[in-house]
Amino acid sequence: MEPLMALAIGLLYATAIFMMLRRSIVKLVIGLLLLSNGANLLIFTTAGMTRGAPPLIPEGMLQPLGDVADPLPQAVVLTAIVIAFGVLAFAVVLIRRAYEIVKADDLDKMKDTDT
Amino acid sequence: MRPEVALPVLLPLLSGALSLLFWRSRPMQRFIAVAGNIALLLVSLWLFVAVWSDGYITMQMGNWPAPFGITLIADMLSAVMILMTGIIGLAMGIYSLATTGRGHEKFGYYPLMHLLLAGVAGAFLTGDIFNLYVWFEVMLVASFALLILGGERAQMEGAIKYVTLNLLASVIFLTAVGLLYGTVGTLNMADIALRLDEAEHSGMVEVLAVMFMVSFGIKAAAFPLFFWLPASYHTPPVAVSALFAGLLTKVGVYSLFRVFTLMFDQTMGYLQDIMLWGAVFTMVTGVLGAAAQYEFRRILSFHIVSQIGYMILGLALYTPLAIAGGVFAIVHNIVVKTNLFLISGITHRLQGTYQLKKMGGLYRERPWLAVAFFISAFSLAGIPPLSGFFAKFVLVRAGLEAEAYVATGIALAVGLMTLYSMVKIWNEVFWKDLPENNHVPSPQASAGDDGRLIKPSLWMMYLPVVVLAAMSLLIGVFAEPIMQVMILIGDQLMNPSGYIEAVMGTSASAEAALLEPFEGQAEPISEDAEGNP
Known about the structure:
The structure holds two protein chains of two kinds. Chain A is an all-alpha fold. Chain A has a single domain, classed as Orthogonal Bundle (Helix Hairpins), CATH 1.10.287. Helix content of chain A is 63%, strand content 0%. In chain A, α1 packs antiparallel against α2 and α2 runs antiparallel to α3. In chain A, 26% of the residues are buried. The model of chain A has no long low-confidence stretch (mean pLDDT 88). By secondary structure, chain B is mostly helical. Chain B has one domain. Chain B has a two-stranded antiparallel sheet. The two termini of chain B are 29 Å apart. The C terminus of chain B is likely disordered. Chain B: Belongs to the CPA3 antiporters (TC 2.A.63) subunit D family. Chain B: It is a multi-pass membrane protein. Chain B: Keywords: Cell membrane, Membrane, Transmembrane, Transmembrane helix.
């Protein structure tokens, strides 16, 4: 399972970087979205994948029986998903407002503040 | 239980929540902006005094023992940074009253300011690497919204670059955190430091160190990753510019200091040269970029980049004295750079423009403003006896001791070129006569950032400027006691064992840290189950 996940994560990162290098601001945001998804999957995978073993301790015992899934990366991923969601919502509103004001979705037309 | 560690985070969150409750009441929000930030300053003073007398102060969230829960820890570096946050927060709270237009106030300027301060304070105090990421995001989201408040074209264009590059940095940071957890199996920074020392070197540690360096490098605006800063910092309302200039990039620098002295100290032999040359190029490109500009806030923005180079130089030299100099540079720069932005806001109010060519004659008109600018500008360039001189003096001395002659020489040359930019502003804004074709708005017609009329209340703008200029002078005059604090910071950062012990407790709990995470977690749960069957 891990090699497959690694491939999927690499693909997500590569696609995301490719999208972010395009000139359209819509593709820029799609790139950001894919990038944060890739990062979330990566956290999930690097901690090791355990199937069908929830980290629950049977009643009256001090530790779980056998190997269980690590709950910490799942908590971390949940937090990261929520943050990515909020930030992307902002980014979508931002590109919409930018499009309304600049009247173009081309990053090359947004160079007034450079230099 | 030491409440002073948590209060600098909780107070701005509380002020922000209160401001949100009084969404429609402008006077109430303004009152909270000042009262909340006064409280923040008092609490940060309390924390500073407590850390000065007691050393490290820690607090385990939810009473989970060290590597399992989230730890808040204040060492001297955190305490100093929190103190600066409190000072800048109060200065901005007062300054914003006079400069923020009603349109901006209506769309949540004050709640966002409080949330930004909460994010900054959280990043300075947390002892958990993922928690650091979360505080970074709190800070970023607040800064995004502040940056586009008003919605002008330049703000949108600047914001797209700012948002994209900062989110990219966040994802690199998050990826590094994920890989780090996969490598050492813990997120507590002190615990990570212990386990990285024990782990055998497989090259993964170097990869992780570089990922952290790149992501914090983007956030700190270090060469070659600084392009978002001069593209965006001159676009928002001036109070927002000043707040960003004072605090945001310094959080990135703080994280670099923290991560590379605590966790990745063994990779410094490998990364030192990269960091040193990164610092040198940051100084040079920043100051050269400023030399080409004729817009007040753009010149200052490029100088932020240039000054970041000095701070990173302190880290790259990697001796206790150099670290002390780097932190001195951070403290000095927070005061001076904020003040220069605040002064640019006053000159904008007086003359209606940020273009140097259209300004002039302010030395005759407002001599005391000229004095405040003079102090801040010459402090930035490092003229004795102002604060910048001592920061640079310590760094240069550390550089000579470490035999990094080229970097030290360039640091001195950059000081001269900083002086050139500051003299340019002085000549254009204060010394030369006002160009005849310039229309100066009368005080009655002065408008907020959104163009609507607000009452002329210049004293609220002058008060923070005068206080910050006096601080810059006092840091220079009383350099000795401040240097003692900096030396203590240098010692603490170069000997992280004190930090690790403060977080992990005595050797007994260090043994517990080596146990599997599940056994440690099982105990409190089972106790609870026995208590409530």
